[in-house]
Design goal:
- The chain is of the alpha+beta class and 264 residues long.
- The chain has eleven helices and 14 strands.
- The protein is globular.
Length: 264
């Protein structure tokens, strides 16, 4: 038996008030993770607070060298946005390779990063592009947001309202997808602005991480060959029926080199 009450938030304040006051209340955005989790009885919230009516949280703006994407913007909208394709084509490419059409039409960027699945695509872009996560309470730097597997810096009644991505000079994302779900077995996002290079790796470990040795090497020489002698340690990486930790460690290097070559 499902036993929860359903609330459609009328405003951001209303959503924060509801989710903060209802014991074990949970926000629902696209429902692409939350609903299967409920169906499998892996979560049992007492109340769902639906963000679906908050149209202020939908949309994409480009201004001041930044692409800002509202939390309730779907993966489909990001993947097809002419503005995103022009400013950060790697981000549109990433969004176009999330799941399947149904997932892309329902799933949202706010839901994806708040859920912080270790194999989700967006966290790698958030890290590599040094994005800022905007909530109803504050602005959080990418490096401070992703805390652990399915764990973020968000407080109980904190709601992601937008994600701001500085526009890089060059960027690319390459993933080795799980052939069934399309989640990343390993995904590597590389971004360069001047001599500042950031490399975000998803799927490989319990939580997205930056590959700092690669960043240093690419900062000196922006070339896939600069990564040839580097590797990440398999210790502590994920190991499951899809891939061993050693295989994932190998894939990080392969995906990073391909991403640099693609970014040009
Ligand atoms: C078959 C399948 C394949 C998938 N493949 C991929 C893939 O290849 N790559 C990938 O990255 N993802 C994949 N996903 C996940 C999908 O991309 C969704 O983005 C993701 O499930 C969460 O987004 P959502 O909007 O559906 O959030 P929901 O499921 O509604 O919510 C997820 C969690 O985030 C919280 N939350 C939602 N919005 C906010 C907010 N604004 N502020 C604070 N907390 C919030 C909710 O309370 C909940 O805990 C897949 C999902 C499915 C079902």
């Amino acid at each position: 038996m499902y036993e929860f009450t359903y609330h459609q938030a009328a405003s951001l304040d209303d959503a924060a008030r509801l989710v903060g006051s209802l014991p074990e209340g949970k926000l629902v955005a696209g429902g692409m993770t939350l609903i299967p989790t409920l169906k499998q009885r892996l979560a049992k919230p007492s109340a769902l607070v639906d963000l679906g009516a908050l149209k202020d949280l939908v949309g994409i703006k480009v201004a001041g060298g930044t692409v800002t994407i509202g939390a309730m913007t779907t993966h489909f909208a990001v993947s097809t946005s002419a503005d995103v394709k022009k400013a950060i084509p790697a981000l549109a490419h990433l969004a176009s390779h999330i799941g399947d059409p149904a997932v892309r039409n329902r799933g949202t960027i706010g839901g994806s990063i708040s859920n912080n699945d270790p194999a989700a695509d967006y966290p790698s872009a958030v890290m590599a592009l040094n994005a800022t996560i905007v909530t109803n309470k504050r602005r959080i730097a990418a490096d401070d947001f992703f805390k652990g597997m399915f764990e973020t810096a968000l407080g109980a009644d904190e709601i992601v309202t937008a994600v701001s991505f500085p526009i890089p000079e060059k960027a690319a994302y390459m993933k080795f997808p799980n052939p069934a779900s399309r989640y990343a077995i390993v995904g590597t996002f590389v971004a360069k602005t001047g001599s500042n290079v950031r490399v975000g790796v998803t799927g490989a470990g319990p939580v997205v991480f930056r590959w700092k040795d690669a960043e240093a090497a690419l900062g000196k020489s922006w070339n896939a060959d600069a990564l040839k002698s580097l590797s990440v340690k398999a210790d502590g990486l994920n190991s499951d029926i899809h891939a061993s930790s050693e295989y994932r460690a190998h894939l990080v290097g392969v995906m990073a080199r391909r991403a640099v070559a693609k970014a040009g």
